[in-house]
Amino acid sequence: MPDVTSRKELGRGERVLPGVYRLRLPLPWPGVPHCNAWAVKAGDGFVLFDTGMHQQDSMANLERALAMCNLRLEEVRLVVCTHAHSDHCGQAATIVKQVGCELWMHPSHELMNLMVEDPQAVFARRLEVARQSGVPAEPLRRYAAERGTPESGIVGPLVPDRDLLEGVTVATDLGDWVTYETPGHSPSHVSLFQPERRLLISGDHLLGRISLYFEFGYSPDPVGEFLSSLDLVEGLDARLCLAGHGRTFTDVHAHIDGNRELVAKHLDGTLEAVREGEPSAFEVVRLVHGDALSEQNAHWLLSQTLGYLTHLEVIGKVTRIAGETERWTA
Ligand SMILES: [Zn+2]
Ligand SMILES: [Zn+2]
């Protein structure tokens, strides 16, 4: 019986080029309804780049999307993950176990392992960062009370068969795809480039609809790393981008510039807020985002703001003042 009470999204698949298929898989997140996995023909099967998130019916959705492209799960010869976020690697363990193929991903996935093995520790660390950043006691207490064990969306733990480091190639019928480390969005992020056809599997590093996210707390300067990754990808001169969410796009350079402009705008806003006095990170969030701040987006805004503050510190524009609540000065 179809579920008529909730509008259920289903996995869908389509061919975007000969031998390249977009598998659009549903996500449970508001504002981010799908993610993409990409199937690229290789010999008698295909390489699966990214996997979708693990949730109820998620394998059925992947198989449905594959079937729309005349592909079968049993034909997966290799799973390659662009980064260790649940929407990109959540089903990897299930797939490699079921079909008996290898999993390749970048080794910097400390957060993902923690999320799978000890989600409470991740949550406790978040609370501690929030407290130190000046989030008042009362919302912090509510956040802690309402939040049960967070769902990781990942079947794991994941044990990659090969570390997807810079220069590692993935063979397909379209030629070899070369791995480039593109951290920033996540320390484990890689992009894969097919040089003869100038195709780029960009994960969440470059998205058709520009949206920034930096995994804060697991590398020294995620914003700086992201900007360096943009420079690197610009040099590849890709002609078509196969991104982790949304449709493919061709105006890759315009997207790179758009990302740089948005980062610059956020850095300016953050610096301006620091000049107001000696704010905590949370006060910076309030100054920059004002009414847009809610208990739903507070964690997200705070972690982005900490990313910007850290980058401004690295480039010598602000200084961190240690204390019970950490403060910032221009
Ligand atoms: Zn991601
Ligand atoms: Zn994603």
Explain the overall architecture.
By secondary structure, the chain is of the alpha/beta class. It contains ten helices and 14 strands. The chain has helices spanning 58-67, 86-89, 92-99, 110-117, 119-132, 137-146, 222-236, 252-274, 281-289, 298-314, and strands at 12-17, 20-29, 32-42, 45-49, 76-80, 102-105, 162-163, 169-172, 175-181, 190-194, 199-203, 240-243, 319-321, 327-329. A seven-stranded mixed sheet has the order 1-2-3-4-5-6-7. A hairpin with a 5-residue loop joins β13 and β14. The N and C termini lie far apart (61 Å). Mean pLDDT is 92; it is low at 1-6. One zinc ion (ZN) binds next to α2.
Blueprint of the fold:
Elements: E1 12-17, E2 20-29, E3 32-42, E4 45-49, H1 58-67, E5 76-80, H2 86-89, H3 92-99, E6 102-105, H4 110-117, H5 119-132, H6 137-146, E7 162-163, E8 169-172, E9 175-181, E10 190-194, E11 199-203, H7 222-236, E12 240-243, H8 252-274, H9 281-289, H10 298-314, E13 319-321, E14 327-329
Parallel strand pairs: 4-5, 5-6, 6-7, 11-12
Antiparallel strand pairs: 1-2, 2-3, 3-4, 8-9, 9-10, 10-11, 13-14
